[in-house]
Amino acid sequence: MTSHTAAQKSFEELVAEAESVSVAGWDFSWLDGRATEERPSWGYARSMGERMATATAALDIQTGGGEVLASVPKLPKLIVATESWPPNIAKATELLHPLGVVVVQDEDNPPLPFADNAFDLVVSRHPVTTWWKEIARVLRPGGTYYSQHVGPASVFELVEYFLGPQPVARLGRRPEVAREEAEAAGLEVIDLRLETLRTEFYDIGAVIYFLRKVIWMVPGFTVDQYRDRLRELHEQIQAEGPFVAHTTRFLIEARKPVQV
Fold first, then answer.
1. Which of 18, 176, 194, 247 has its CA 20 to 30 A from that of 148?
2. Which residues have a Cβ under 8 Å from the Cβ of 34 and sit 6 or more positions away?
3. Degrees (nearest 5) of the Cα angle 194, 196, 215?
4. Where does the record place the Methyltransferase type domain (predicted)?
5. Measured at the alpha carbon of residue 196, what is the angle toward residues 176 and 194, in degrees to the nearest 5?
6. How far apart are CA 77 and CA 64, in angstroms?
7. Could you tell me where the beta strands, DSSP code E, fall in 92-135?
8. DSSP 230-255
9. Which of 124, 104, 120 is nearest to 57 (CA)?
10. Residue closest to 243 by CA, chosen among 212, 187, 210, 199
11. Can you tell me the distance from the alpha carbon of 237 to that of 241, in angstroms, rounded to the nearest whole number?
């Protein structure tokens, strides 16, 4: 599917197509040719993989469908992933078990189902919540938490198109708050970087798919509820070109101090 092909389809055709596709897992390849998003300069999958290569015991929190973890070239001898959403658990199990990864169902509430000092590396890509005290507890002294988080007001041009101004929500997910919470849990933040990245949606099907998959952007989103607004956006894209938003991401790396 290319943006040119999508442009030839009617609103109803694009809606039906986007509603029918599965949104399980954390693979966004369905959007190829229909939406683009700049990638952060630090290359999370690559840099996380480099840390995995030297770890002995690692934990991937909120692994989604396991797609990012499965891309790691060299996994530690002991590697565990947690996930809460049942469709993702099934997908992650199918993908990760052949690689020797244990997938654990976890409801994303403390405590993490692991002993103290269990891992020398904990990672997470786009965690919905971050329980810093639990991360500090399961890390070994000298161990590292390495994660890419969704930043403040990410893709809020799209969120506010449907929900209107969100002044309070815009204040959430700030990197400096993550630093404060990590340090309060006893971790030392050794790297913290924020980037703003251009994102474009080339057809209304891409918008629908994105909002169905990233369910916290417009909570309770359904096509029926927002059909009029979706049609307006479809007509805007047809007349003016891609809908432009801005994604924010921050990288945080924190270390558990070695006890003296």
1. 18
2. 1, 3, 6, 201, 202, 203, 205, 206, 209
3. 95
4. 59-146
5. 30
6. 21
7. 102-105, 119-125
8. HHHHHHHHHHH-PEEEEEEEEEEEEE
9. 120
10. 199
11. 5
Cis ω for the linkage preceding 111 (within 30 of 0): yes
**Residue 244 tokens, joined:** 């432009």
Q: How many Cα atoms within 13 Å fall on the side-chain side of residue 188? A: 9
pLDDT tens-digit series, residues 101-157: 999 999 999 999 999 999 999 999 999 999 999 999 999 999 999 999 999 999 999
User: How many other C-beta atoms lie within 10 A of the C-beta of residue 31?
Assistant: 18
In tens, the pLDDT along 196-226 reads 999 999 999 999 999 999 999 999 999 999 9
Q: Three-class SS of residue 217?
A: coil
What gap in Å lies between CA 69 and CA 96, rounded to an integer?
8
Report how far residue 44's alpha carbon sits from residue 113's, in angstroms, rounded to the nearest whole number.
Answer: 26
